[in-house]
Amino acid sequence: PRSVTAAFQEYLQHLGLQDFPCGLGSWDKSRLNARRSPGAEPAGLEEAVPPGEETPEELLELLRDQHSPWALPPDCGPPEQLLREVAVLAPELLRGSGVLQTVTSLRLLDKGVEEVDEGLLQFQQLEELILSANHISRVTSAHLPRTLKILELGYNAVSDLQDLCARPPPEIQHLGLGYNRLCGPSQEKHFSVDFWPNLVSLDLRFNSLTNLPELASQLSTLPNLYILLLQGNPLGLIPAYRGFLVDSLPRLSILDDIYIWPEEREQFHGLARQPELIRSEARVVVSIGELKGLPNPEAFQQLEVGSEDPVITYSYFVTYEF
Question: Which region is the signal sequence (predicted)?
Answer without folding.
Answer: none
